[in-house]
Design goal:
alpha+beta, about 220 residues, about 40% helix, Arc Repressor Mutant, subunit A
Length: about 220
């Protein structure tokens, strides 16, 4: 039996690739310090290993970027994670936060054969339960045009995806009714990079700027 080429990466290295591809989706650049805060693991040996495998590179501005090869590996991991989330919500009935936490565990374990079978059984879904695009089998993906924080005041929009990675944050948005396909209105932006004021039905919320940057919408 042929060995899976992913065997050369350990779980920490795969998490680095996943964190970088998610940052790319949100048009963010990450430094080693940013990665350390996100992952809470010793990074130096893992970063060096990924650099030696030509999967990441360090830019002159100290940011860490994926190479084309690293991006392909990261998208494959992201595909498995988001397919697993679909299975946990659509088949097993887990809530969004629990589905995300469980997918974190199995994304490192699914073989290519299991991934293909899972995708077929789910009907080749385009998005995860949070609305994030599932990369295709060849790694292609699409980007939603705007984050909530980029929308002008008095703009109506439909939430397209939620780019959050912690179950607690996902659950918080769910309790506010901020979920994919929900219509909202961006009412105003507080000055000096303050919160973004939004209306959901009859409820009004002030969302911190970092949170607003992680909610991607299609304007109406």
């Amino acid at each position: 039996m042929q060995l899976d080429p992913r065997a050369s990466l350990n779980e920490a290295q795969e998490m680095i690739l996943l964190t970088l591809i998610r940052a790319e989706e949100n048009q963010c650049a990450l430094s080693p310090a940013d990665l350390a805060r996100e992952l809470n693991v010793p990074l130096a040996p893992h970063l060096q290993s990924l650099i030696s495998q030509s999967l990441i590179l360090s830019n002159s501005d100290s940011s860490i970027k994926l190479t084309n090869a690293g991006r392909a590996r990261a998208r494959a991991l992201l595909r498995r994670h988001r397919l697993a989330e679909r299975h946990f919500t659509d088949v097993l009935g887990l809530d969004l936060a629990r589905a995300h936490a469980e997918a974190d565990k199995v994304e490192h374990l699914l073989s290519s054969e299991a991934e293909a079978t899972l995708a077929a059984q789910l009907g080749e879904p385009d998005t995860c339960p949070h609305g994030n695009p599932i990369p295709g089998a060849r790694g292609e993906t699409e980007r939603v045009s705007k984050s909530l924080a980029e929308c002008a005041p008095h703009t109506a929009a439909t939430i397209a995806r939620i780019a959050l990675e912690t179950p607690a944050a996902i659950q918080h948005l769910a309790t506010l009714g901020l979920l994919p396909n929900v219509e909202i209105e961006i009412e105003n932006h507080a000055p000096f990079a303050g919160p973004v004021l939004v209306r959901v039905g009859r409820a009004h919320y002030a969302l911190g700027r970092d949170l607003a940057n992680r909610i991607w919408v299609n304007t109406i």
